[in-house]
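job 3f2a | input accepted
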Amino acid sequence: MGDEDSVAPARTYGSTTTCNAGNSPPTACDSNSPTTDGDTNAAASESMVPTLPQLSPSPSVTTSTLHTPCRSFDVRQPPSITEVQLAIRDLNLLLHPPRNRGRGYKTTALTSTLEKCLMWMLYFFRAFVDGLEWGPAALKTAKFVGKGPYISRKVREWSRAYISDCGNLPFIRYGGAWTKSRIRDEDLQEELLLHLQSLGKYVTASAIIIYLDHLEVQARYGLTETISLAMAQRWMTEVGYRWGKDPKGQYVDGHERDDVVFYRQNSFIPAWYKIDANTRRWSSANPLQCENDETDVGRKTVVWFHNESTFYAHDRQKTYWVPKDAKALPQQKGEGSSLMVADFISADYGWLHSHDGKESARVLFRAGKGRDGYFTNDEILVQVKKAMGILEKDYPDEDHVFVFDNATTHLK
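job 3f2a | predicted structure (412 res):
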């Protein structure tokens, strides 16, 4: 019989029996009958463990290797120190395979998830060899990597399986087909895109929610319920839409002009402090509740703010879900005809109108040459006189103050 057919005699390290075939060095997975006595671990010492032989690199491992779970009693029972030391040697070679020539290591073929799990096992083995008990060593490892009792239990399970057979590597169900989003289905993408296009220019993410709530759609794609609004917004980008708006120019703000600042500091703020004590104070918790209406005695002061808004014929919604392949379309030049709305509003009563609702100080003004002209001081005075008439008739028990924007049109 040739040398290659000879079998080396069995060698015993502590309570572990290893058999070598030919010149192959002993490894943790060579053990035929590992002892699981917890007292053996406590009694073992470094002086009792002989120097371990140099290990050859472990065979190449594919990431598809499945982990065979150990029985529960194997997970709780600690292996011997020798078995763990052999496993440490194996893991070091698996995680850091040496080059065929020279120093350094080769790149492993392990996935990042598998490599992370093997590193956790290596931390666990080292903590156990350093003197910690089997369970506390696993818990300390889990805390060290920022995990909890579940990972502590899994590390013990992976480690016990690896010691029994070095082909038993941790297997994590991660990145498989079961984790893929349903929107990756090309048929579903195309159907949703056609549905959104049929709704016109202005579509919303809620349209996907409503569409997927149909039973026939759910049956066609194996869905049990519709999706959330947040997921629908993500799916909008998957089917080719983006949330955006047309670019606009910058506005020039005149609030910090010297004359405006001077008027605000020396006229407006002092005048406001004079009337502030007699105004109603509204609760921050309940905006409809007045805090000082019943306790204060005397006439109340109601502040009416004059507000103007201008609407243009070519005003359109500028922000919407735009198809990624949308092309520029001709648009009407300019803003179009305008309509200005001017009215008074207060925190006490809302828009200014009579108690019966038949009279109002609201003004609709078609500004422009050839139309109503321009809203000047004269129009402001006419509107104020009408507002004062309504207040004198329907709100005679209160004092009223009108506040206008600091604009040239409002000065007289």
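job 3f2a | The longest helix spans residues 258-276.
job 3f2a | closed
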